[in-house]
Structure of Prophage integrase IntA:
Amino acid sequence: MQKPLTDVLVRGISPPTSGRTELGDTRCKGLELRVTSGGARSWSFRFRDPRSGRVTRATIGSYPEVSLADARERANGLRRSVSAGLNPVEEKRRERESSKTNTFKALSDRYLDEHARRFKRSAPADERNLRLHVLPKWANRRYDEIQRRDVIDLCEGMVAAGTATNANRVQALISSVFSFAVDADMIGVNPCVRLRKRAAENVGRRVLTDEELVLFWHRVVSPPVSRRVGLALRIALLTGARVSEIAQAERGEFSHIDDPERAGWVLPTARSKNGCSHFTPLSELARETVSEAMDLADSTSSFLFPSPSVRSKPITGHALSVAMQRFGGSVGTASEAARSWASEQPSPHDLRRTVATRLAALGCPAEDVSAVLNHKRRDVTGRHYDLYDRAKEKRRALNLWSDAIISLVRAAGLRSSP
């Protein structure tokens, strides 16, 4: 039925006893009002598909939420689309589908799958920073609508929250995500190009004092840190290894634990930051600590520090960082070492810096210290010719360091089993 629709007519039409009534608007070609037996009124636009020639219908909305005037305006817009050779229903469906793939969440997933996990050893850190700092704000935003000021606002918010250094990391990560999008021909311009760092970064200088070393050694294996995680942190202090490498260590990477001349840990290429396999000799304390960790670990797991919550996975390096924070919050202020620790809480990386600094103080040559830390030489000789792994020198250095820790702990009268 066709009629010149008016607001009075639309409001006053009586619902049918069954089924539905459909009224076409003679003042707006294609616009129809549908009234059901329940009294519901809704607008639609009837048109012929430009390609198939089939008559179909596009939903506009319900009355009175969509007034007659608004319905006519929308119908006119749909008619223009049909005149341009488009099917409004198909266009709307494509928009819904594309809305799921043009979000920043979709872009970040592609970045992780197609770039970070393939080429970056820091992929887990990228995933964690995206999850914690970026996706809560941008997950459902169209990535092609994110502008330079949006990046600045997000990262400046982190600076204001007291995480300036991490703000720089997150900004660099966002830039990497958009660089990936440019390379994948998803956008034309990276909004982070030439964007300055949010804050200056201080070079880390935190090194544990003798008293702090004793405090750490004695108490890090006690609550609120579990003994297993405390042992992992002790290994970091004894070897200078990165906590991410320790967290993911597998039992099979350790050999000859009972032999002081041969005991060692081989970090495989796949997990090494510089892509080179790395041999770490195990000192007396390191052997004892690794042995205890093996005794405490789940015998069915291949990992030295299996995750307590995720089956067949190790703990994460982030878990060790959290444990360091918990330890720092529990030291109290009863001693000078505790007050010093609490005033400037060390991070796991500060343990690594402490190892390097103490080895140098013990008279170890810089080449041996670098070898212990698995720092790759950048000069031509180091990169292409000198392939000596300095295993003998590394064992001497780490044995000296183990002996120094033993002397400190014994002198303080706090020696405990590792």
The longest helix spans residues 391-411. The longest strand covers residues 55-63. The chain has three domains: 2-97, 104-183, 210-411. The chain has 17 helices and eight strands.
